[in-house]
Amino acid sequence: MFDDFARHWTPILPLSALGKAPQRAVLAGVPLVLWRDGSGKASVLIDRCPHRGVSLALGSIENGRLACGFHGWEFGGDGSCLHIPFNPDTGLAPRGATALPSRELGGLLWVFTGFDPDSEPVLAPHLLDYSLARFDYYEDWDCHWTRAMENMLDFPHLPYVHRTTIGRFVRSKQKRNSRLTFDLEDTDYGFRFGTRVDDNPPGASLSWYRPNSMILDTMPEPRIQRVQIFCIPTEPNRTRMLLVTVRNFATNPAAGLVFDKFNLKVLHQDKAIVESSDPVEVPASGERSVPTDRPTLAFRTWYLRELKGTSVEASA
């Protein structure tokens, strides 16, 4: 289970997207059902009824319990079987569904790709700052998550893919013989780097949060305009792009519509490029890298060394 993405926390969707009905999602190839129990707590189960293996997401919420749509078996948020129709004398304990560790933090529903977490989700501070204007959005792309992740850490593509949006600021400084340099530094959460074109003032800074998130800071303090993107593996060679943007200025709703539209345009400029990647997954060799690939290669090295080949055994 969770092949090549085992034992890590990742958000799966914004909490605002979790409605009253059970919702199906796929994380690293594993089908899940997301729902809220009677207390309003978000719960995550493997989307498989232990009775006959059907999707629990096809069921309903009955009195705060998840009821299977096939035979009406009812489950609690921890997966425990609470009721089996027509079988009052049948033991419930051995007939539970499989729950996964989950957290409601920073406006997102986090899921652990395993059963016994030895850590908690690492959140960037802006996710907990409710004074900031915020926009959450997600959509699914036809690509491997590692290609999307490298794209989000790739600065040199800005003046080409994003020439009409954020790339125009880089393009205005660029000459035929320009040199792009980084000041990449390791952090507790991954790494961070600033950018500089020739002798121009430093440009945007980017951060990588293990395993699958990028943060782009586009303005110097005290202004905050920050974009965070999570590249979440779903079905094979499918990736959920979860976008969170925040800012501490122009917080009125009308301005928000303008900023949100712009950020979506930037995101969509990347889509066709990333989906065209061949091979689909980042390879260990065979591509011709250059010095400006340093941040993406740092991620790739970590992925191939620490995450590729990982998995967890299915719970009994």
From TrEMBL:
One of its GO terms (molecular function) is dioxygenase activity. This is Aromatic ring-hydroxylating dioxygenase subunit alpha. GO terms for cellular component: cytoplasm; membrane. Its main location: membrane. It comes from the Bacteria. PANTHER family: CHOLESTEROL 7-DESATURASE NVD, IRON-SULFUR DOMAIN CONTAINING PROTEIN. The lineage of its organism: Bacteria, Bacillati, Actinomycetota, Actinomycetes, Propionibacteriales. It is found in: Membrane. Keywords: 2Fe-2S, Dioxygenase, Iron, Iron-sulfur, Membrane, Metal-binding, Oxidoreductase, Transmembrane, Transmembrane helix. PROSITE patterns: RIESKE (PS51296), RING_HYDROXYL_ALPHA (PS00570). It comes from Propioniciclava tarda. Pfam families: Rieske, VanA_C. Residues 9-111 form the Rieske domain.
